[in-house]
Amino acid sequence: MGNLLYLFILLALGKISRRLSAFPENTPQILNLFVIYFSFPATVLLKTKNLNLGTDLAVLALTPWALMLMTVLGIRLIAWYRRWDRKTEGTVMLCTGLGNTSFLGFPAVAAFFGEDALSYAVIYDQLGTFLGLAIFGTLVVSVYGTSTRPSIKQIILNIIGFPPFLALTASLCLMKVTFPLPVIKLLEGVSATMIPLVMFSIGAQLRLRQPFSNVKPISLILFLKMMVFPLMVFFCLTMMKVHGPVLHISVFESAMPSMVMSGVLAQSGRLNAEVANAAIGYGLVLSFITLPFFDLLLKMFP
After folding, report:
1. For residues 142 and 150, is the Cβ–Cβ distance under 8 A?
2. Which domain does 277 fall in, by range?
3. Which of 19, 74, 174, 252 has the largest CB neighbor count within 10 A?
4. Mean pLDDT value across the chain
5. Which residues pair with 268 in a beta bridge?
């Protein structure tokens, strides 16, 4: 519970900062840029050198893609039954299919499972969720929104130009190279800034006061994303005899609330941004209950 309290305090400090004039309005955006260009890539370079590139990589990378496929099929059926408009359907699809597996997932994984587990979380995020954001996210917005339909070239450029993805590519190419001690110390120092900056930034952007007219789609997002999907991953992987860190991180990352970027996509694609923002905000708060639950569950299966 100490680790959870640490994350909660950082979240609260970020929320408090919004009331202090010393912090400019764009503080979260500046912190996010630092994390994306420096902290996140340093963590990737530091934590992915000891991965088993066999079964570990396949399970971790394919789990989020399987969940995205289930999201499309499930939400299409539910939207037809509920007779939702296309914008609400697209928003629920985005928020259910894309999890906060880096900005919240990395600090949570480090807090509950230790720094060494971050290498598994990086693979889950970069080869699963991040590629899903670039491909699944843009396709959903293209189909359900009114934004310009992205070309294949634009999607590929977005992927290969993302700093953490470049760091992952470099790390996989340098797996057998031993970094000099000064380089390791530098990476460790920069990487250490990620957790406090990310949680502070999330707290600064947290908005809980939302209209309740969208309660059904919001509740569905939270229920599927944070309970149903991780339980399904848990049962499927245990039946496949997957165990250890691969099982733990696959389940734990699948239990993360909706990705903050899903709200950005919903806004830019003129979908139902109110539903997206509410799901993100309430999901972050609810994760302080659901993540300890899954931590306790996974500790029963070493």
Report:
1. yes
2. 2-12+25-299
3. 252
4. 86
5. none
Kindly give the residue spans of alpha helices, DSSP state H, lying in 114-214. 118-123, 131-132, 138-144, 152-160, 163-173, 181-191, 194-205
CATH code: domain of residue 169: 1.20.1530.20
**CA-CA-CA-CA torsion sign (113, 240, 168, 185):** positive
**How many domains does the chain fold into?**
1
Quickly count: other Cβ atoms within 10 Å of residue 50's Cβ: 8
How far, in Å, CA of 185 to CA of 187, rounded?
5
Tokens coding 175: 């797996």
The sign one gets for the Cα dihedral 283, 198, 130, 183 is: negative
Q: What does the DSSP 8-state code read for residue 84?
A: -
Single out the residue of 200, 278, 237 nearest to residue 32, CA to CA. Answer: 200
In tens, the pLDDT along 129-188 reads 887 887 788 788 878 875 556 677 776 777 777 787 788 788 878 878 888 999 999 999
Q: What are phi and psi of 145, to 5 degrees?
A: -105, -165
Residues β-bridged to residue 99? 258
**Over the stretch 41-75, which tens digit does the pLDDT of each residue have?**
888 888 776 666 666 678 999 999 999 999 999 99
